[in-house]
Amino acid sequence: MLRATRAHIRKDFTVEFRSRFAVSVAAAFAAITTLSVSLAAGGAPLAPLVHAILYWIIVFFSAMSGLAHIFTREEEEGTSLLLRLVAPPEAVFTAKLVFNCAMLFALAVIITPLYLFFLNVGLPGPGFLALAASGTFAIAASSTVLAAIVARAGGKAALFTVISFPVLLPVLWICISTTSTILLGADADVAGSALFLLAFSGALVAVSYMLFEHIWSEE
Fold first, then answer.
1. What is the rounded distance in angstroms from the CA atom of residue 208 to the CA atom of residue 210?
2. What phi and psi, each to the nearest 5 degrees, are found at residue 68?
3. Closest C-alpha to 61, from 32, 93, 94
4. Hey, where are the domains in the chain?
5. 71, 98, 139, 102: which is closest to 6 by C-alpha?
6. CB-hemisphere CA count at 13 Å for 160?
7. pLDDT tens per residue, range 115-164
8. Nearest-CA neighbor of 2 among 83, 87, 80, 129?
9. Is the dihedral of CA 141, 27, 64, 46 positive or negative?
10. Going by C-beta distance under 8 Å and a sequence separation of 6 or more, which residues neighbour residue 145?
11. Which residue in 159, 155, 148 sits closest to 217, CA to CA?
């Protein structure tokens, strides 16, 4: 199981970075959206709550533009049948989960400094970085199984966004409210928010492992 998981993680990273389609599209979306928001604001000061909403909306839609590709690529290229025959479903899901988390962390590393620079936001401090890391992980971990459902149903990115938003609404709510408090300079319960996000994503990942074999193997 461990050997199969490592092999599939290596395969996913090799194949994806050979074409760099999903990563390039998501990174371009994140950069262009951040720049567009900055131009629309026109240098006007924005309230901390507005900054928090804009930041997490950019992170969310950047994730939606790239996370589903790791499964839809298998369906489009006809390799999903081979994976179902030779690989344990748990190894496939773990590899896709690791890739999605790594990709969204990379996007967050791009989005955060761009947003702080173009929107003229002061450096929030280490609490914000911890919240951003846990929120990013929650989005990637919670939506990976939804990407598999969309791919098996023959859906595209629009459907992925529609079904992911209700599931991720608690994550976005906590991230936005805590980020707003941090930007206001008030005492924010970052530890409590991060613990909630990790517990939420952990529960959904556990459910995903139980359901993934049925989602992946059933025709």
1. 5
2. -70, -20
3. 32
4. 2-217
5. 98
6. 30
7. 888 888 877 777 888 899 999 999 998 888 888 888 877 656 667 888 88
8. 87
9. positive
10. 93, 204, 207, 208, 211, 212, 215
11. 148
* Number of other residues whose CB lies within 10 A of the CB of residue 134: 24
Structure tokens at 30: 């994140």
**Residue listed under structure tokens 């709550």:** 49
> What distance in Å separates the CA atoms of residue 212 and residue 129, rounded to the nearest whole number?
31
Residue length, the chain? 219
Whether residue 101 contacts residue 70, with contact meaning beta carbons closer than 8 Å, is answered with no
Identify whether the C-beta of residue 196 lies closer than 8 Å to the C-beta of residue 174. Answer: yes
10-residue mean pLDDT profile of the chain (219 residues): values are 79 76 77 84 80 91 81 76 79 88 89 85 81 91 87 72 89 92 81 91 90 77
> At 38, phi and psi to the nearest 5?
-65, -45
57 contacts 189 by C-beta, under 8 angstroms: no
Contact 60, 170 (CB under 8 A): no
- Residue appearing with tokens 């990637």: 140
What Å distances lie between residue 34 and 39, 40, 126, 169, 218, CA to CA? Answer: 9, 10, 22, 21, 40
179: tokens are 């980020």
